Amino acid sequence: MSVFEQYSPGLGSVGNYQVAGTPWLTSSTIPASGNVANTSRNSSTQHIQFPYVTKQITIENIGTGEICFTLKDEGNALGDGVNGGHSFTIPPSGSNGSPLSRVTLDMKTKEIFISNKHNQPGGFQVYASLTRIDRRHMFELTGSGINSEPGDTTIVP
Q1: What is the CATH number of the domain that holds 91?
Q2: CA triple 47-49-52, angle to 5 deg
Q3: Which of 2, 3, 26, 47 is nearest to 130 (CA)?
Q4: Structural domain tally of the chain?
Q5: pLDDT of 10-61, one tens digit each?
Q6: Does any domain span residue 7?
Q7: Beta bridge partner(s), residue 127
Q8: Residue 59 forms part of a structural domain
């Protein structure tokens, strides 16, 4: 007797990354965090969970202060990028003469975390291009550059 199962694409399904993705949008404000030193865990971190694995993500800062995004919500993730933190800072538009207030990344993930870096309210917009790969197929992101201890450069396969 044959057993038929409906096909479901997985992470190695190349076609899902070659075609245009399904658009997904969200925006939010971030309350002031009390994160004055810029190095401690932010109590107002926003957890963005995507319904499917992403193909590309654009994060735009629409607030007046810096925001950071990380791939793990852990105490050492925010930190100072120079001293081993694992966050990416997005300045507000027009700060220090920079017109850039957004970043676009080609990456597969099922979630990101966004925080304001200073003790002031912030805001962001997220656009994601989604594959049709169910988020449960996405492995847990961990290791060097994600959530390892500051100064750890070990790459775990």
Answers
A1: 2.60.120.770
A2: 165
A3: 26
A4: 1
A5: 777 777 778 888 999 999 988 876 554 544 445 678 899 999 999 999 999 9
A6: no
A7: 25, 58
A8: yes
Q: Does 156 score more than 90 pLDDT?
A: no
Identity of residue 72 = K
Instruction: Return the amino acid letter for 61.
Output: N
Least Cα distance to 117 among 76, 67, 74 occurs for 67
Classify residue 147: in a domain, yes or no.
no
Q: Which residue(s) pair with 56 in the sheet?
A: 129
Maximal CA-CA distance, the chain: 69
Cα–Cα distance for residue pair 54/135, rounded to 1 Å: 9
Please list the helix, strand and coil fractions of the chain in percent, rounded to the nearest 5, in that order: 10, 35, 60
Range of the domain at 22: 18-136
**pLDDT tens figures, 63-74:** 888 888 888 775
Residue type at position 135: R
- What does the chain come to in residues? 157
The whole-angstrom separation of Cα 91 and Cα 60 is: 9
φ/ψ (deg, to 5) at 63 = -100, -170
Whether 79 is in a domain gets the answer yes
Supply 79's token pair. 């930190």
